[in-house]
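User: I'm writing a tutorial on reading structure tokens. Could you give me a worked example: one chain, its sequence, then its tokens, then a sentence or two explaining what the tokens reveal?
Assistant: Sure. Here is the example chain.
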Amino acid sequence: MATLADIGLAAAINILSAFAFLLAFAVLRLQPINDRVYFPKWYLKGVRSSPIHSGTFVRKFVNLDLRSYLRFLGWMPAALKMPEPELIEHAGLDSSVYLRIYLIGLKIFVPITILAFAVLVPVNWTNTTLENSKVEYSDIDKLSISNIPNRSQRFWAHLVMAYVFSFWTCYVLFKEYEIIASMRLHFLASEKRRPDQFTVLVQNVPPDPDESVSELVEHFFLVNHRDHYLTHQVVYNANKLAKLVKEKKQMQNWLDYYQLKYDRNPSKRPTTKTGFLGLCGDKVDAIEFYTSEVERLSKKAATEREKVKKDPKSVMPAAFVSFRTRWGAAVCAQTQQTRNPTLWLTKWAPEPRDVYWQNLAMPFVSLTVRRLIIAVAFFFLTFFFMIPIAFVQSLANIEGIEKAVPFLKPIIEVHIIKSFIQGFLPGIALKIFLIFLPTILMLMSKFEGFISLSALERRSASKYYLFLLVNVFLGSIVAGTAFQQLHTFMHQSANEIPKTIGVSIPMKATFFISYIMVDGWAGIAGEILRLKPLIVFHLKNFFLVKTEKDREEAMDPGSIEFGSSEPQIQLYFLLGLVYAVVTPFLLPFIIIFFGLAYAVFRHQEAMMKDTLERAKEPNLDLKAYLVNAYVHPVFKDGDEDDSFSVDEEVVYDNVLVPTKRQSRRNTPAHSRYNGSSSPSLSDAIQEL
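And here are its predicted structure tokens:
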């Protein structure tokens, strides 16, 4: 059993690990060679230049200013002092709200910890139940509810505190929701307009033998939203074209690289091999080879583009429909459009940069089947993942290791090694098993067909939290393999299941303390080091970067990994609220996590507005602003041959148009569409 001394030693090890990460960050961020890794947004904004281009050779890579090392923790006060409006402007509202989650953790658990240590710890510690029993126990158990006998009057203290803690948590959440709602309204009132504020996504447009999808969408919204409809853009299945454009971009990149190399040394023509990664195959002139590859792919892309334009099967039964006002878009997005609830389905369109274009090509009717398949697959993934986790957890403790390798018992019994194993190894073992899980869950979410990156992250996050709840929380509490647990639950009364879990919760406090220290303390401190971006940047810079554009892409600041970090926060909230009454000794470890995470993530890195915009920009041409917003990126390439046009005529007059369908022969007004396709974007811009 782990003692307070063992936990203290493990805490010291994790604190030293966290400090080592912070120290490494403080040193690495000062080196000129890492400048683009730790300050990417300043480079992308053009307010910072590379120190590598100036100074002596050594100074280009190593910071020789000794005074800067004396201020190695100067980043922390600067990060904490940044005003919230400035933070929102720099990193966005989402990042600011995300940071407030850690602040909520501190607001909730600091008062709870003070109250728990003032009331519950003395109530638990002054009892003698465990001392008079024959069971093995630790000092942590004496601080927990396990030291209270059955039917004791002392349980009233725990019951009252449970209600107090719950009330305080609900109160903090209520007040914080008010703050965040106010922040959002202020942000929406002050930010620049975005295309998604005026646009909805329409899916499952019913097929019509007489009209194209574009004509059908236009007629429908001119009839049903005559005063607010502005324009639309149908969705194309351009996945194959996107692959060709991506491949062409890669070849063009290599061509630019070798051309630049030749320009620097005209006396020698660069060569390359035609095989895998240029490592094998025939040796050829690099510039000629990549020039021919670019020309070949350009022809293939042009052919595929013509196919997409002319093939009706390339047009999906979906469209992005834009309105004159935000109010018009809101009404459409939140109302049922027809009597049949399965047709003309509308919802808010994602921001253009947030669209996951590949999934827009999925047939809408297949989404239900796909999500059913993933639900079944996720169930089995969650269930069978218990087996390796339980196996590793059984080895990652003193008894398990001594049983597996008995000859190491004399070494394991050394106090410092024993403390390390009890306080560090179980958390590390579980952390290792969870490394690849977010990637697996993201692939599953993509298979389900969600059409925005943010929706994919939310879906992945929900799966990850359920996985943590079942495997990390419940799986660790209820000891044994998955099949043993299933057998236990199936062969006992349903009334006994909460009792089984309740008995096990105090016994696992030590494990969760270890997990918080490894995953929370050292893990969060490791986040600020940006070890993965640091390694990836230097690998790309050494092997792949050929132009300044490559270097900008290599230093991509990325974003907070919401799909994995947010479920982690939920797990810590769960642990804190569960153990607040049961084992209050765990609470200080939770507080340290939230405090450290707040400092670290603060460093790293949405009728009234319509009226306001008209007052500020009375001549605003909203059509021109929205017409190209939701065109597939492969049709908006900078090269002239990548421009997209599917027709020669366009109309944006807000009138009803004639239709080829017999049911609408008497529709008034005349259309300038030729009746076969959606409007030409290039002509639309000229006409506007």
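What the tokens reveal: The radius of gyration is 31 Å. Residues 112 and 310 are 66 Å apart (CA to CA).
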